[in-house]
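In the laboratory, one determines a bound structure by crystallizing the protein with its ligand and collecting diffraction data. In a computational setting the workflow is compressed into a single prediction: the sequence and the ligand go in, and a structural description comes out. We illustrate the idea with S-adenosylmethionine.
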Amino acid sequence: MITNNKVKNNLPYRRKRREGRTMADVAFDAQKIAFAPISFQAALALRNLGILQLLNTTPADDKTIAKKLKLSLYAVQTLLENGIALEIVSLENGKYALTKTGWFLLCDPMTRANMDFVQDVCYLGMHSLQDSLTHGKPTGLKVFGKWKTVYEGLSKLPAKNRKSWFTFDHFYSDIAFPEILPIIFEPAPKRVMDIGANTGKWAKKCLDYNKAVTLMLVDLPGQLNMAKKNLKKYGKRAEFYPTNVLDGKAQFPKGADAVLMSQFLDCFDEKQIISILKKVKIAAHQNTRIYILEPLWDRQEYKAATFCLNHTSLYFTNIANGNSKMYSYTQLEHCVKKAGLKVEKVFDQIGRFSYTLLCCKK
Ligand SMILES: C[S@@+](CC[C@H](N)C(=O)[O-])C[C@H]1O[C@@H](n2cnc3c(N)ncnc32)[C@H](O)[C@@H]1O
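The predicted complex, in structure-token form:
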């Protein structure tokens, strides 16, 4: 039997006083985690079935919602009761209304990009997360195909899943790019190498920003084929170098005055990052500026941002490649130094997600 004294001395009870939270709060937080996948699907259904949109205009009762959306009363009631539990909707005088969280789920583009990415890219694979962690392999990727990394299969993903991947990937760097363009072009580089150029979105921004610059795009062949189509109108100002940077013999082309790696190094483990940076060093001349743009989880202003980045790490574990993650500043700086490069300048708080731009040199 547990006596009062024993209850007082057990760990959660002592934590209650330290954290200023009750046992009931703690138990509720634990249940939120226990049911998280179901909560996620409920929120997605509330959004995708049009219930949140309908309530955004005006509060309504369950029968009206069911009739307007041609859903069963059972479906509407079950979802809305979960919506109350998740504080997505509130219930007053028999009418449901959207809460601020509900509005965010419906209208905030970042939340939408994150939810679609989790549903269309991560959800099915994540069932095998523990296997990925113990084997160092992206075991969830088998949901889409037999590739070693998601990057090999990116251009072949089903259209809906590919769209969610690209929307997620571009959402964050798109906001950061306009802010870094003046920094990168301040020393007037004639040739800029974009490693991990993807579909050429950033290269296009550079080519438009400075009419004299030549872009050297490096990525896997599948991605560069998409980039070639997107950059056709720039003719010889866009050069393409299909390369698997993990190939031991692969080298980068020489002659770049600036090198950009945006959201690129997070695709690799520390050993691979050091090896890539060593190859960048070989290709660089004495004045080449080497820019690394990353959202670093220890440099975030908002808790929500750190939360998203730490969860994104597990996408790398389970779907992307099995061995990379979102890094901290200390980890990245360690790799830069190990590769024999110097960090010359650090620009923080770039874009909505507080990206960090490291400017390095030989
Ligand atoms: C996360 S995306 C970043 C794209 C873009 N730079 C941006 O900021 O939005 C990473 C890019 O690195 C490329 N990549 C991953 N592994 C690679 C490899 N082994 N060799 C060459 N490129 C690779 C991917 O194809 C992808 O286009």
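The chain has a mean pLDDT of 94. Keep in mind that any predicted model is a hypothesis to be tested, not a measurement.
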